[in-house]
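Researcher: Go.
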Amino acid sequence: PPLYFIHAVLTGISVFIAAQMHWIAGFGFSAGLIDMMLSSRNPLATDWYMLFPQGVLFLWFII
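Model: Structure:
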């Protein structure tokens, strides 16, 4: 349970940052890499590629 709580908090912070920066990439059901690559062709997806550096920064500085 503590690890799940930490994961939920970090996910919430990450989604908040992405929403504030307007980095949008839709996803089907799992929000995984394949979903992101498939939805990157969506005209509503804006700056979806910025989610990769955000993920690296979260791994490097937060964890």
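Model: The chain is about 60% helix and 0% strand.
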